[in-house]
């Protein structure tokens, strides 16, 4: 989607260590944050809004 930003949060330290050892990185693809609360506070203070998209079942 255009205008969307990927943010990864809440990754356990054990998983992060394994990702680093495996050479997995999200540097240019997603922002990483320590906790969901930290992420939401930062986004709300930057003026982001939460929107809800409802779809109907066919």
Polypeptide structure, described:
The structure is a single chain. The protein has two helices and two strands. The protein has helices at 13-22, 36-45, and strands at residues 7-9, 31-33. The protein has a two-stranded parallel sheet. Strand 1, helix 1 (13-22) and strand 2 form a beta-alpha-beta unit. The longest helix is centred in the first third of the chain and has 10 residues, at 13-22. The protein starts with 6 loop residues before the first strand and ends in a 13-residue tail after the last helix.
Identify the notable features of this structure and list them briefly.
58 residues; alpha+beta; 2 helices; 2 strands; 10% strand
CA radius of gyration is 15 Å
Q: How confident is the prediction overall: mean pLDDT?
A: 82
Category from helices, strands and their pairing: alpha+beta
Tell how many strands the DSSP assignment holds.
2
Alpha-carbon distance between the termini? Answer: 23 Å
Summed up, the helix count is: 2
Order of helices and strands: EHEH
Strand order of the largest sheet: 1-2
Largest sheet: 2 strands, parallel
Percent helix: 25-40%
Classify the beta-strand content into a percent band: 5-15%
* Rough outline: extended
Task: List segments where confidence is low: pLDDT < 50 over at least 5 consecutive residues.
Answer: none
Question: Concise description?
Answer:
By secondary structure, the chain is of the alpha+beta class. It is 34% helix and 10% strand.
Topology:
Layout: E1 7-9, H1 13-22, E2 31-33, H2 36-45
